[in-house]
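Lab notebook page, bench 4
Experiment: in silico fold of construct C2
Operator: M.H.
Input chain length: 224 residues
Purpose: comparison with the prior construct
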Amino acid sequence: MAVTDAAIDKIKQMILSGELSPGDRLPKEADLAERLGLSRNSLREAVRALALIHVLDVRQGDGTYVTSLEPQLLLDAMSFVVDFHRDDTVLEFFQVRRILEPAATALAATYMSDDDIADLRKILTALPERPSVEELVANDLEFHQRIASGAGNTVLSSLIESLSGPTTRARIWRGLTQEGALEKTVEQHVAICDAIAARQPEVARAWATVHVAGVEDWLRRALA
């Protein structure tokens, strides 16, 4: 194991063991390096790496702190990498969406409050009668993000949100080129919302699968 990797692992173990908790300040560099049996250079490299992925927060003139470790914060680094995807990998993002979103939709049918479901319905009714493709896609993104956040699992919600960006262009492309895409999207959104409102997790899961798989299938044929 490289020296820096070993240093990262030692700091990680301090967090996992509860020795360092979210919001805690790390001991002074010299003290921590001696305690962990590391050189100060190795410790600095480890801190720099952990700061890049939002595990640590280096505050100039104040010290280094463990962040909140909230899923959304930690997954920001993944979002950054995802933004640099190649066009020929977009199908793989849809495949992951097809796994995650139906699960989130089923959970939403169980855990979303009545008020949240009413808000979800408002997103559908806010769409103009003849929306532009951009309006449809923005509405689609908000609809799916609201369901993901209503699933009651912050990690799942953050993962789904991270996958939204790479698939946006494909959604717009579909709206511009596939006949009936607008009507189909609206119809499936209504069916998903109805299933959630009726507290039918498996029906909601099925409609979400149909919805995401439909876009994936269209994209596969378009790329071919």
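Observations: The chain is about 70% helix and 5% strand. The radius of gyration is 22 Å.
Next step: discuss at group meeting.
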